[in-house]
Each structure stands twice: as structure tokens, then as C-alpha cells.
Task: structure prediction
Amino acid sequence: MSQEAEVAEKTHAPIPGLPSGYILDESDPDVFVLRRPDGSFLAAFSALGATEESIQQAAVEDL
Result:
């Protein structure tokens, strides 16, 4: 199974407002991982303090 397929299996639906293909990996209950369209790591956020705005900002800045 490819890394991208494994990531897709562990994630929930993308956050509205994220650029196309970016996903939020919520497989760890303590840390949310923002992944690029190719499945690579972009940023990590505390599950307790992450906001949709901060996650969206990280993705937009990566474009």
C-alpha cells in the first residue's frame, strides 16, 4: 500500500477552505498533521489548540 493510500485511510474529510489535495491527518488523537497533496508532511498542530484558520494559513503559505 502506498504512503498516500495509507494516509487517506487514516484521515478524515479535508477541512473546508484548504487548497485542493491538502488533508488533515487526525490518526493521532494528540497531534493533527497537515499533509500536502502528495502525502508528505507539511505541519503539525496540537489537537487541543489547533484552529481551522491556522491550518488553512499553513496550507496557503505552502502554495
In short: The chain is about 30% helix and 20% strand. The mean pLDDT is 85.
